[in-house]
What does this fold into?
Amino acid sequence: MTSSSEAGPSIAPTGSLDPIALGRAVDKLVTAALAAQTWSLVGAAEVAVETTDKNEAQNMRTAQEEVRDSARAYLGTQVPGVVKRLVDIQSAVALFQSIRTLAATAPEQSAVCLDAVTKDFGTFQQMADEFAGLYEGFCEQVKARGAVLADRTGAEIRRLSTGTGKIPTTSRALKDMRQTVRKDLDDVIEASHRSGKGARKILDSVADSLRGIGIKATGDPEAGDVGRALQKLRKDTEKLETLYKELAGQQAGLQTLLKVDSDCDAYVRSVCAVAGPARAVANMWQQMYAEYSAAVVKHTRPSDSFALAKDIDEAAVKWESLRERTKTLSAAITGN
It folds into this structure.
């Protein structure tokens, strides 16, 4: 048996090449994926918004549907891709346990065992790299679709809320009509004072009507100036009620637009936040593949195999620690 200083390089991973570091990278991937999953569910079920410009209605529907499609694609395609990265680690754990047993019973075959595992690590790296690349392309699509919807909602928000938009215009009309109704009421009171006869009855009728929604007829008004003044008050109050309803609808529409705009932004940002961790996981597999490949090449002397068997045993312990960790992560993202 050679001394440790004479033995080949150790494969006991340290630093960024530690399998525990791979576990931490996957933690970040799953955490980001869970946030994206939440916002994708919101995006896939987002309510339709109305447009004040009928010519823009189809463009808005198309923009929303494309974002919904990408959200459904994330849930149906990208989430399984994230889960597969966890399955890769589970497979790596099983492989290391297998060569740990073989290396313990036939230490002279340690390099051969590690070589077989290293080839599988190359496959894991390739699959992680392909996933990261496809995901980066998916993010570009998501950003493009999100930008189109943001442009549509932004334009509609401006049409509703700024300058000569619907809400300011309705608000001004409402303010003017409130002044008109106040004047109408003054005219009714003034006319009833002039008529004298039945004034209290007329004013009571007006008061009762104003308590309801709009002005409802409470019997034939007194003839003459009072009747005409009361009739105008009723008509103008109905217009006022209509303006209140229009403004309420416009404000509700604005709130819906603001929510859709905010939810779309959160969806895009959360989905694209997965790309970095996905690439980091692929890079981590590349580093491990390179490390273990180098270890196989450098452990060439017969005595190296015994040292390598010890290193495989130590590495297997670290890989085993990821088994429950990845099960927990998988349950978090799949709900199983």
Summary: The first helix runs from residue 19 to 44. Confidence is low (pLDDT under 50) at residues 1-9, 12-16, 213-222. The domain at 19-334 is CATH 1.20.1170.10 (Hemolysin E; Chain: A;). The chain is about 80% helix and 0% strand.
